[in-house]
Structures are given as C-alpha cells and as structure tokens.
Fold this sequence. Notes:
CATH architecture of the largest domain: 3-Layer(aba) Sandwich
CATH topology of the largest domain: Rossmann fold
Oligomer: single chain
Strand order of the largest sheet: 3-2-1-4-5-6-7
Mean pLDDT: 93
Amino acid sequence: xIYLYNLVILILLPIYLLYLWRQQKxxxxxxxxxxxxxKCNNNPIWIHSVSLGESKISLKLAEILKxxxxxxxxxxxxxxxxxxxxxxxxxxxxxxIDFYPFQLRAVKRLKPKAIVMxxxxxWPSIIQICTRKKxxxxxxxxxxxxxxxxxxxxxKRFLSDILGHIYLSSLSDDSKKRFLDLGVKEExxxxxxxxxxxxxxxxxxxxxxxxxxTAHLFPDIQISTIIGGSIREGExxxxxxxxxxxxxxxxxxxxxxxxxxxxxxxxxxxxxxxxELKSVLRSKGESSQWDxxxxxxxxxxxxxxxxxxxxxxxxxxxxxxxxxxxxxxVFRVPILTGKHFNNFYVEMMSLIKNGAAxxxxxxTLSDKIKQxxxxxxxxxxxxxxxxxxxxxxxxxxxxxATYLEQKLKxxxx
Length: 413
C-alpha cells in the first residue's frame, strides 16, 4: 500500500508543485520541499507544524525543549506558518513533500533525534522511514474529529501498519480512542491538555506598534466593532447578511472580516457591494471610511482581535469543524459561535460553560449581536470569563515538553 501511496504522489507531483508555486508566493523553498534540508550533526528534535496557529505552538514547545538541552529544528507547510517561524531564532525550513525519496533525503541530512508533529499530521512515508531507522515519531496535540475519522477508517489496514510504532499525546479520550481504532498502541498513548490554551497576548511593544500602524483605520473608538475571524467559504453571506440586519437598526457598528482563505476576498467584496456596504482592503492601507474592513494580509488577524467588541468564530456555521476561539478570548472578547465546532470542542465547551461564548444558529446571529451590543454589562462579564478560561488552562505546553523529554530518555540510546 505504501508503494501505491508513493506512486500517486509521484503522478500528482507536477500539479502539486505548480499549486505550491502559486500559493506560497515567495515561500516555495523548492529545494527544501524536495528534501534538501540543512545538513546537521547535532541530532535535532524536528518539530513540524502546518500553519500559523500550530507554528505558534511549535515555537513555545521549542523554547522549552531548548532550555532542557535539546536542539529544535522547525518546519512548516504553509506561507503563514513559515512567516511565523522566521520570527524566531531557531533553524527552519519548509516541510518536504511526503514522497519517500524526498523524506529519506531529508532524514539523512538532518539526522533527527526524534520527529514531533504538532496536531494530527499523518504522513505515511516519513513515518515509515522513522520506523525503519528507529527514530521516535510523535504526534502531539493530536485530535481526530468524527468526519476525519470516517475518512481514515476506510484505510484502517494501511494506517494500522503506519501508526503502530508512533507515540501520541491526544487532546481527549474520544480522540485517543479513534487513534487506537486506527492502529496506535495503547501503551504509546497519553491524553494531555491543548497547548493552544497557552496562548499569550502580544507583548505591549508589539501590540503598540501594530496599533500605530493601523490607527488610521480606527480613528473613532466610539463605533462598536464586530470581527468575523477565519470565515470559511459559504459563510461569507451568513456573516455579512446578519451584520447588515444589525446595521439597519444600529448604524454605529463596523465589521472586521477575515476570510480563512485569500481566494475568497473577491467573494467578500462582491457581497459587500450587493448589500450596499462600503468595504476596504487592509493591504491597500485605505481610509477609515468603511463598513467592512477585509483582512487580506497574513498573520494579522490575531492582532485585530484587540479592536473587537464581539467575535464571530468562522467555520462553525457550516460543517467545517470551526476555528480557534482562544485568540479572541485572550483579548477579552465575547464570542459567538455556530454549532459546528468539533475541531475545537474542548476549548469551545470550556468557553461556553464559563459563560464566555454563546452558540447560535445562522438565522439568529443578528439577534445575538444586537443583544450583546445593547447590554454592556453582559459583554463585560463574557469578556472576563473568556480571559479567565484561557488563564485557568495554562501549562499544557510544559506538560507536553515533559512528556517528550521523559519518553525520549527511555527510547533513545
């Protein structure tokens, strides 16, 4: 089966490379994608993260492991992730395409002591290489939603062979059970809290610089600001239509709109025009005369939460599984969410239980926005509850680093 998997990758390789070239926009790093990672002699811990949110986690994890005498080496797949990693002091590269010869070349050049995947990254070729070379392979912050599990279970025989030798820290007992059903061994599994709870607000200097850079967009602090974060395809109309309903009653509001994917920016602009809402693009550096500010830049959404009075979580009003609700929470922003948040179930349920988030249907989103805008005391209570929820759950990255350290002492000669 591994041969068939690699044959498919080989056939699709030209198409995938073209896709990467178009998507990465300056972060293709082709040699690294083909396995030409730096040659290392210090046996690094190779930590991989896919995108921006996971890259922030991997940096925190790398800092702790560095303090404990390990040599972290970081990779990411996406432009946003690589942009985040470049801000650090750690050596880094793009993650090689999971074609066996490319990954084998990467492993031979890097000589890692262990490989750590942040969140559920299952790449059969590199896992098999690690198994054959007896290199410990970890998945940390692992989770599998119902939808993903239904797809994976169709390949159970193949995945059982691949996953039988990995080590796993899962976010919940439910995810752990799904991993076990896919072939991970019980003795190699542990449940640890989500490292995303260790999110910190930006340093004061960093946030001040951002505020100065964007001050021209927000001259009037009296206008209430709603933010839609990481809005997925098909949800644009839901968010903008509900915002328009509220604006017809209360003209003293504005919307910061962050599409999850950059190719949806034009769709958002067209919807604003259709609803007679004046939109501006963040990248154009335009004036403050807007109803909807569209975030079409990389890595700025987190900072824009600091302007918000209410946050709408993308990916939750249609069955996408939801996006990270902890970023607005750390800025003390009340949260509105749809019912599809299975990708962040533990986090969202903590926020809901503590009174920091409200679940609403797409048809009632405008009513919930209106209610919160009209009741400042409820907004304040939700804001404090959001921040406290994050604070109460801190320490998970430290626990994960300790788990890795203890496991490596036992399995590495």
